[in-house]
Amino acid sequence: xxxxxxxVKIAIQMVGAIPQLIELQQTKPLTSVLKDICDAWSLPNxxxxxxxxxxxxxxxxxxxxxxxxxxxxxxRLTASPDQEAECLYSGIQSxxxxxxxxxxxxxxxxxxxxxxxxxxxxxxxxxQIYSIVEEGKDTGEMLAHTLKAFMELMEHDFVSWETLxxxxxxxxxxxxxxxVVDASVQQLSLSILENMVPxxxxxxxxxxxxxxxxxxxxHLQVTNTELQLxxxxxxxxxxxxxxxxxxxDMMDYLREKNVRQFIHKNIIHSSEPLxxxxxxxxYVLQSISLNLREHRMRTPMDPYSQEQRELLxxxxxxxxxxxxxxxVGHFSTEHRRSLCAKEFRKLGFVNNSNPAEDLxxxxxxxxxxxxMVYFSRLTPNAxxxxxxxxxxxxxxxxxxxxRSSIQLTLILCEILHVGEPCSETAQAFYPMFFGQDxxxxxxxxVCIQLVNKTWKEMRATQEDFDKVLQVVREQITRxxxxxxxxxxxxxxxxxxxxxxxxxxxxxxxxxxxxxxxAVPVLELRERLKPELLQLICQQRLLHLCExxxxxxxxxxxxxxxxxxxxxxxxxxxLHYGDVExxxxxxxxxxxxxxxxxxxxxxxxxGKECPHTKEKSSGKQNKDILxxxxxxxxxxxxxxxxxxxxxxxxxxxxxxxxxxxLGKEMTSERMQTDLDMLLSMELKLRLLDLENISIPDNxxxxxxxPSNLNFCYDFSHAE
Length: 718
Fold this sequence. Notes:
Elements: E1 7-13, E2 20-25, H1 30-40, E3 49-53, E4 74-79, H2 81-91, H3 97-110, H4 114-122, H5 125-135, H6 140-154, H7 166-177, H8 183-196, H9 201-210, H10 213-220, H11 225-241, H12 244-256, H13 259-268, H14 276-291, H15 294-297, H16 306-321, H17 333-347, H18 366-378, H19 380-391, H20 401-415, H21 439-458, H22 465-480, H23 487-496, H24 499-515, H25 519-546, E5 548-551, E6 562-567, E7 573-579, E8 593-596, E9 600-605, H26 610-613, H27 622-627, E10 628-633, E11 638-643, H28 647-660, H29 668-685, H30 714-717
Parallel strand pairs: 1-4
Antiparallel strand pairs: 1-2, 3-4, 5-6, 6-7, 7-8, 9-10, 10-11
């Protein structure tokens, strides 16, 4: 008979004593449980002791987390958090170097536990850490332990970052700016500053003033990838916390220092694989840079602005006045106005008498004008050829340059998510972005010539304008999806993907869809589904057995600690535990925590998850909600919370967990995989029927012939 839900069988260890095997009554007060354990070992003063996990983060057992104890758990009887806090508070003030170092090392480890952290902070322990840092006597290993302990204590949000003294902050900054200092100290100092920057405007200004961009760029160029990552994290934190004007100035300075080219050559194309966190920072840097164009994108043209009118007229002058023998200024006002209107019409403006009206729509606003001017100045020959070539065609066949440029700018803004806030988890950056200084404008120059090329291939007229731009959007998105590493490679690939290729791709997709809609094929699909669903189930469970590296998301930091979760090969137990940075696939034996699959009750996703409800007071991030899921196990109070690294991982894990719970897989990835497998299987089954139309109804079975007689009549023989 299984034990009651409020009883767990566990082992208790203590140094120098024989372990105890007990049945822990979850309804019994923890103080009474500790007294019974101490009495069994004849230990006085039970209030000085506490229970602690022996593996993982070695968390103290409290009334609030005791329900997480599982059958078979091994706990340790150790000094209570208040006793440890008192002991370490004294130890870090010791004059003995070894005692002080050991105390700080233990403090850094125990500070991960919220109960101990609160006890230590209540004793004004942070003040002692401040003094150790501010005095600056200790360096190397001792300083690293001090900074690590400070980081862990601040993680619990008991103390505001704004309470830090200027002297303490400047000391941390000095470790970042020092050329000769231990790498671990610099990494921790950069992490502290990164956490500090988003909390208040005053701290941002102080850090921005003390830590120069040149210093951060120096750290970016080191070979130590961890130090490089922390420097990039602080740079991104500063950019995100800056005002629009400050952000623009910072990005201009980074452009002067050729940071993009360095990232493209030494980080994206380095021999070391690019980590998830660095990929996210590169995505954010790309997003920030592209969003600098948001203001121009949302600003309509002002017809009374002299500067904007000059930019507009420069388009006409570049295209036409260079080849004109008589300057426009020599004509009368009426003649000049008529000539300008004619030339603006040739440029492709809809409202040729007042072309500024075409640029009143925002988005794309003035960004479209900027792109056209950039194209005309960077490649005047290509620009003139585009305009003059189309002005010599018949009216209905000319490709309107201005109208196409305005619509293309809007398409590029949508594809590149200009003006949208940065995702907290996305890692999708374009490597070729870091290979160009004016990426958006350079991409426009390539794509506007693609518009003209596609227009000619389609033999389009003015009525086909939307169709042409739709094809161009498809050409751009299909090419970007393969993530070309340079703009030249993008240009080559997008030009190869011409209109005829797009038609072939569309036709293939359409034929595939039509083929799969025939009634007999639909019946065959239904027969094949159970077998293929079973195959998908096996793949999902296999993926869970391989495991995944997850990140914990805290309230202040985008990503905190790493932890790993995987399913046992017999599909009966989920193993999980914290891991260090750099560990990709830890062995299952190294993951201390376990959840029996039989104890799993429910799978929660999105807004239903407890860890997303906890953050509901702040600005809820859509991406986090789309990647969040939780397992409810044992009793409903216990949850294991996940934030999947990607949507792909989210789909595989939620499908796999649903399989373990005996429920249907519901993710969009399951439907995609099923459609792909069904398509492959159907194509194999229907190979012999190629070019043969499949009727909706089976052919009628003919009547048997009149002479079909297999029965011998014995009566005639008689």
